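Translate sequence into structure tokens.
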Amino acid sequence: MKGVSQNPNTSSLTLEKLTAFGGFNGSDGWETQKFITKHNNVSEVALLNLIEDGDELMSVFVSDCKKSPDSVLRKLAIHESGLVRINVAKHINSSATTLVKAMGSSQGRSYSEDIKIEISKNRNSTAEMLSELAVSKCEEVKEGLAKNSNTPFELLDDLSKSRNEDIKLSVAKNNNTSSSTLEKLSRSKEIRILKAVAKNKNSAESTLNLLAKSKNKDVQKSLPKQYRKS
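Result follows.
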């Protein structure tokens, strides 16, 4: 079975039959299952077969599988294992509905904060979900929110007032940050923040004119050509 799972030419139907058959015992059995989750032809049916008994290690493998569809991830979103739920929270294929499940099933349980961090960074998180995470005191959650292009501009404005310069930098780089917030950030003493404001497409003309007065060469290079000092 291990050889079949490693063969790149093995069809999705064969993998489905292999996972339905079961009988994965010992270290070879675990390796076979892991190879199946990484196979280019692995299907939704095969992945569902692998997580049928709820085994934690197998669920970790499947939740980490790049080809796992949302239908599979949704089943894993309520898994007992925090490691599985973290993988679901960070997965590119997890829908907003699945992310809500992962977050809701994690309240008061292990890895709850880690799951919030991943959801704050996930591009499938909705504006409403991200706004709910804003009450978190975790700096990593706030930084994830500051980086996420789905974060509402009102929340980005709040985050721009943080004492954490990394969070301010992420807000300055965010394409959803409003011109008024960028104008406030343009008064920062941090050169990296000024550079980010200069590059942001939402920066107003008045903000760019203000930055054009900077004597810093890096800030000048970050400005659109028409605003740079000759």
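Note: The mean pLDDT is 92.
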